[in-house]
Amino acid sequence: MQTGKQTRRPAVPPLLLLAVFLVHWLNIPHLPSAWAQPAQQVPVAGADAEHDRLAQALRNGGVVVLLRHSATLPGTGDPPGFRLDDCPTQRNLSDPGRAQAGRIGQWFRQHGLEPTAVKASPWCRTRETATLAFGRSQDWTALSNLLGDRSRQDEHARQVLEAIARIGPSDLEVLVTHGVTINAFIGEYLQQGEMVVVRPAARKGGASASASARPEAADGSGREIEVVGRLLVP
User: Fold this and answer.
1) b/e map of 158-182 (b: 16 or more CB within 10 Å)?
2) Which domains does the chain have, with CATH numbers?
3) What's the predicted TM-score (pTM) here?
């Protein structure tokens, strides 16, 4: 005869529940592939078309590529007491950064592009980026790192912007410098290893360019620089 009293089941230890949960999820056969494998970068629609557009702009000439040096060892700026003539005292490229510089050069070669000039800041990480990508580098003090010392920012900006304004119609120049320097010159801030393609904005009566594509130079000089596009080689 039943008394109506419910029989209580033995409590399952919490650790046992956790073990069952882990075994279940570690061995489940239909685990979504996004969890079962390392995450992979999903191609952005139209990225190839944008790369082709910029490659054609470089092929046409009359442009300057401002390239931020490729990836470095962790840190900001340089260690105290660094010297430009002593690379070990500076913050330098990491191994992935060196590989990234090589891919940048490979992208240029794959698109049949040969810079007419390659200039770099006199820092070792910019020189090495230029050399690994293009096999050559010419120091230009106007491309120096402005982080921590902006005393010559206006003068350096004037030199660089005048060089852009004088770019020959068939020239393709690459200027390898620093993120803070590019930002100070044209108001764009790039990732390490990213490029921005610029050229002098069309003069009145010349070839047209939209007003939004003709920002005033960040030095306040009134010079208009057309940003053709930005490129980060994967």
Assistant:
1) bbbbebbeebeeeebbbbbbbbbbb
2) 62-72+91-232 (3.40.50.1240)
3) 0.75
